[in-house]
Amino acid sequence: MIERQTMWHAYKRELFSLSRQEQDQLRQRNPLDSFCRPVLTQDFPQAIALECWLWLHRDSRIQTLDLRGIICSKLPEEILLHKELAHLFLDLNELVELPFELQRLPLHTLSLGRNCIEHFPSLSECWQTLTELNLGENRISKIEFDDEHFVFFYRGSIGSNPIKEPIGERWMLRYDAQEAVRRIMGMFEAADRARNDQIALTMVCQGLGLLQQISEPMIDSEIYRGCFIKDGLFFSPFDSSRGWTNYALLEYFPRVRRTALIDPSLWRHRFGTFNISHLQLPLFPKSLSNLLTK
């Protein structure tokens, strides 16, 4: 960590020495992409690429940052330069801690993903902004959190952390999430066994409607467990006998939120950008039709 900090401080002096035009060119080659993910090119040393990017874009008024998959055992302090940051998504970063100063940001959404975080810092200064907190799969055993203290808070997700339940009224219990998964997948399985397509479609719509209504990261993570994209093809753990189930997974895919813990291959794909021709989907309906209201 000390070596990394030394490298960053030395490189920061180089960035300071660049002209405004040269800094602008660096920003253009390392932008924020359409998924709100930093583009990190070989312009920066790999070990400190995120620090460089955050510093260069300090005046960009960024509100959403998707840092999933960017390795950093600790969030760089340069993230605090982004004083309008409202939505922060983390996952598979190898994070072991979060900075106490994170609460200085006007966070609305904080998602911790799959990391190694043990201590959860206070977010008391976010009491006027925080609406959603997802603890993900970490090692957090204690959290001091009072729903009533946060004015606009409406949802917390406990994930697989070893925390005693319940936390609060706005946190779904793990047991309830598991039961919801069984119910929804049961509807999709019933559709696969239905006597006709109209009954099958009705069952699928009910399951999708329940998914949309609950919108819980623990449920979405389990529903899409085993799904991934390889060479442009969408794969699921269900075989050709589960055509309606595969249909349901594809139909809901555009609505899977960044807080769900899904395979990294699904992070940067939009609906319609992958090949589903190898899947034996039901003939009725003949195409994915956005059954759910937007």
Fold and architecture overview:
This protein has 294 residues and is α/β, with parallel strands linked by helices. The protein folds into three domains: 1-60, no CATH class; 80-172; 175-266, no CATH class. It has seven helices and eight strands, in the order H-H-H-E-E-E-E-E-E-H-H-H-E-E-H. The protein has helices spanning 2-17, 20-29, 49-56, 174-193, 197-214, 217-223, 243-252, and strands spanning 64-66, 87-89, 109-111, 132-134, 155-157, 171-172, 228-230, 233-235. The protein has a six-stranded parallel sheet. A two-stranded antiparallel ribbon has the order 7-8. A hairpin with a 2-residue loop joins strand 7 (228-230) and strand 8 (233-235). Helix 4 packs antiparallel against helix 5, helix 4 (174-193) packs parallel to helix 6 and helix 4 crosses helix 7 (243-252). The longest helix has 20 residues, at 174-193.
Give a quick set of tags describing it.
two-stranded antiparallel sheet; single chain; six-stranded parallel sheet
Radius of gyration: 21 Å
**Domain count:** 3
User: Main beta sheet: strand number and arrangement?
Assistant: 6 strands, parallel
* Spatial separation of the terminal alpha carbons: 45 Å
Structural class: alpha/beta
**Which strand order does the major sheet show?**
1-2-3-4-5-6
Number of helical segments with 4 or more residues: 7
Please give the number of β-strands.
Answer: 8
- What's the average pLDDT? 92
H and E string: HHHEEEEEEHHHEEH
Uncertain spans: 289-294
Percent range for β-strand residues: 5-15%
- Helix amount: 25-40%
What's the shape?
globular
